Amino acid sequence: MEAWIEHLGRATAGCVDAFIVVVEPGQRSIQTLKTIKKLAGDLGITKIFAVGNKIRNQEEREFLIKACEDVELLGFLSYDPELIEADRQGQTPFKRCILYTQQVEAIKDNILKLLDNWFWHKALDRRMANQLLRNPPSSSIRATFKKQQIYSREEIKWLLRATLKLPKKLN
After folding, report:
1. What does pTM read for this prediction?
2. Is the pLDDT of residue 122 over 70?
């Protein structure tokens, strides 16, 4: 069994909202992605994302785009012999492998966007909206929630702090 998939089979990943699967441009890796997607779906986890790894050329990139079908690709990491050399020498790749560093940053930004969207969506679900309607900070925000529209991110932060008793500094 592929590394780590046994956790899905034992359902120990039941508290997980999403998976990020690292895929390489090969059939075994794509089959592993499909297995993870099916097992995750059986557990009710529908958000599956992928990161392409060890990409050497545009052909391999296009292969992964086509093979991943309906799995969103968060980005690609190029194959870089300098990365292996940096690891052998115990050096950080972020100073030595500039393209790799840029690709990791782009993937990180995509993940943060997903988390940001997920957080705000979860935070403003119907239960919270109903709770806020009972005790809103102002009539304009009450009207906002009745329409299910939000005027500003700062108002959302205020509502979350007030409702969830979060600290004042919510970034």
Report:
1. 0.66
2. no
